[in-house]
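G., the chain you wanted modeled:
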Amino acid sequence: MKHMRWDNLSAPPDEGTPDGAAPAAPPLPLALPGAIARTFDTPGFAGMTFYEVRAKSIINRVPGQSRVPFEWTINPYRGCSHACVYCVSGDTPILMADGRTKPISELEVGDRIYGTERRGAYRHYVVTTVRDKWSTVKRAYRVTLEDGTTLVASGDHRFLTERGWKHVTGSMRGGDRRPYLTTRNRLLGTGAFATAPKRSADYRRGYLCALVRDADHPGSRFRLATGDDEALERAERFLADAGIGTGRMPGQPVRAGRRSTTAIRTARPGDDEAVAELVSPADEPTDDWWLGFLAGSFDAVGSCRQGVFRIGVTDDESLRRAAEALDRFGFRWALDDPGNVNRARQVRLTGGLPERLRFFHLTDPAVTRKRSIEGTALKCRARLRVASIEDLGLELPLWDITTGTGDFIANGVVSHNCFARNTHTYLDLDAGADFDRRVIVKVNAGELVRRELAAPKWRGAHIAMGTNVDCYQRAEGRYALMPQILAALRDFANPFSILTKGTLLLRDLPLLRQAAEMTRVGLSYSVGFVDEALWRAVEPGTPSPRRRLDAVRRLTDAGFSVGVLMAPILPGLSDDDESIDATVAAIAASGATSVTPLPLHLRPGAREWYARWLAREYPHLVPRYRRLYQAGSYAPQAYQREVTARVRMAARRHGLHRGEPGDNRQVPEAPPAPAAEQLSLL
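Predicted structure as tokens:
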């Protein structure tokens, strides 16, 4: 059992449902047996689950191997509600690994679907796995493309365009500034997926007509042999639907390198006439019959290799039927005629991947190995320019998934999914999006702090908060644990420091003032850069850098000395002189007393998430990051010294003291700021 990792937690008694909350029943993490799981109707917490636990202890000793110099910390939360959720409508068809489609709302964790990965100059389709799935309710927008493709998504959702990832909505300036779709953008993909055929009686007859047209009929007994078990199973089902029983038998021996075959034959000699009638061509074929005929033809004598789709035709009659069927549904094709009696003619589908997918989805052949598009380059020129973006004026249930590649194929276009960090695995929670969607709340944190501060063995050591998980994340607005914690620290005159990205800290300004009269209080904000486009990409669920610096100004106006941890500084993205100078200038203007630079460090979990994000958004930087972080979580000392020196020079230019690494973590006579520890990227 893994419960020992969280033996200091136990479940609270059921005290009923608070206002605005509804008990949820998702599977509980193994390490949190009996915890109360709640979801809230508030839009800001849509799609999130809060696990309310009664902890046995709250003041925790920092592991000895940690680089931070303080010993004690308080974390009222595990997990973080800072990150955003990106969603699409529940009926959006997703391209599955077997070549078929399934609505996103029907996907399950573990399903194999298509995503993309960059190889050289192009992205390529690859099979990936659904790692997580969730729903929320958000304002919905309809995106319509030039070819008629429609997608319903939230304004936060991102699609891949010829100019990179773009949100559905955004702005050129202000707090909503971020890359967003316009009618000048073209999405990447093949366009809308065709609707699968109905398995009607006519479809079944058409399929069998094509599949058994060359079947061997020794004597009076019907017999069908094929090397593809999926086609054979479908034939058995369709014959059974018509009341015709079959049995299996070994196929004829095959040459080396060829697929082995299995055969079916009628169970009763009298059924042969029924089979002959069933597979005879229809006098007036319906659309369903022709769709079944095309699917059976592909399963029987079709192939799709290296992007070339062909169906063999043995004589003029089979050519006439294939041509009539393809023409009926608007497929473009060409005839490959070798002019040699020993080589069969073949009908070749033209139009590239969009037409091949349209054939597969419209007709639904049984043999999935022939439907694979893995490795195909994403470079077709489909008519996917954005025609319109319509605000539907209402909130709808929307869905999102997490995949191994970071994206998926939604109704024929490449769609972004949501990622998170590997900081929950010790709770037996998912290493991906659970960090953002499943938050552990120690509901008795306030009373525990008071009890542990009163213990005779406690010696009044400095306590750092916000260095692992932000204690002023959005969930604090719901649970309000920090006022109780601050009141206890005030009453026991225990020194403490807080590092945060959250502007909710201002709510507790009166308590902070009272505590500062009794003990040493250190306050710091984390602001790594002021570029709002970069903030939207890397820290989308946090208050903007400008809002954080406004909070610094209000705290300094209230008499606090507030330090700023300039973290994380991102190599190649925010470590240039222009970015450093702009950030330090804004920090100085906020009234901060010091700035402490901290280049990005990538611990396990965050490392994998960030690497995938970087490869998608800034692939040209991947080689540089590999060099910088090849030895572990931290950039080389030489790089850290160079960045620190440039921040120091910018601080001097703007009249700002540059904190030494660690001086925001120490406990000097003056009020200390908290540790120079990088907060979560999201």
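DSSP finds 17 helices and 32 strands in the chain.

Shout if anything looks off.
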